[in-house]
Amino acid sequence: MNERNKEDARKVYAMVKNLDDNIGKVLLKLEELGISENTIVIFMTDNGPQQTRYNAGMRGLKASVYRGGVRVPFYIKYPAIIEGNRDITATTANIDVFPTIADICNIKMPVERIIDGKSFLPLLKGAAKGWEDRSLFFYWSRKYPELYNNVALQKGKFKLVGHTDFDALINDFELFDIEQDPYEQNNIIDKNTVFASEMKKELDKYYYELVNSPNLTNPQRIIIGNNKENPVLLNRNDAEGERAIWDQDEIYGKWRVAITNGTYNIRFRFLNPLKKGGHMIVETGTIINQTINQQQDAIYLEMNNISFPDLECDLIPFYNVDSKTIFPFWAEFERVR
């Protein structure tokens, strides 16, 4: 660990201490209110550390499909049905939380859509049948999954990992027995190519199901101007455009939006100070609004009293100066009338 890693780790561990204190306050309050017995409490974390620090010896960090990038702690407390403390080793995932909560609360699941997860209430009650060969698909990218790159399929104790080309042969993949090799150090693909090929077929099924999902091929537009959420803040997590869009200045980005007829004040936040004299341009389909920035080193720019009709379009804002096209870090739209 270098000095920056160490300082980042100090901040993380301070945050952990803060979380520990405040979770303790929540649990104590449940006891004080007399509702602890029949209250479901869940603690889980984000996946993978971004920097080099303690990771339980697991391989990989955030943005990796190795266990260090995808495996997280999950605690559930519900004394009404869970007695005592115990560890459950079956593989579950975030997609299982919704059906589990519905199962505990005796709520019927939706039937008009596919629910990917499954209830792990039987696991909480001590029954492990049906979970031994459960399959889970993993991928990481800043856009859509890439065929055989940074993807994985875990099935029971075996895990197939792809960091290879779209036309790769099975021996270009990695296969791990995570019961015998929890740190994913020993690739056993060469001795298990037939089994691994079957796993690859299942990985292919999940991949093509995902890339053909309406959620990706025709994603929901962000609604701007609705009275129930005004203003609306558009951030990089929701932006489309170039791959790997995150915190770059000069990058092409856009938001897929549905704008409600009205007059708006718009505020843009940039990562770095802007040079005076550039043009702030907002493209909304065929409607383009622009203004010249008169401030030196501004990181916020505003465009007020812009009228829009009802629009479904790509929202493309950018600052143009010295042949540079700078995408804002976030944009705030407030409908004022």
Overview of this structure, please?
The chain has 337 residues and is α+β, with helices and mostly antiparallel strands. The chain has helices at 3-33, 67-70, 97-104, 121-124, 193-211, 214-217, and strands spanning 41-44, 74-77, 135-139, 149-155, 158-163, 174-177, 222-224, 232-235, 240-241, 253-259, 262-274, 279-284, 287-292, 298-308, 311-321, 324-326, 330-335. It folds into three domains: 3-124, no CATH class; 135-214, Arylsulfatase, C-terminal domain (2-Layer Sandwich); 222-335, Galactose-binding domain-like (Jelly Rolls, Sandwich).
Unreliable runs, pLDDT <50, ≥5 residues?
Answer: none
- Rounded to an integer in angstroms, the radius of gyration calculated over CA atoms is 24 Å
Strand content: 25-35%
**Secondary structure: helix percent:** 10-25%
Globally, the shape reads globular
Oligomer: single chain
Q: Give a short account of the largest sheet.
A: 7 strands, mixed
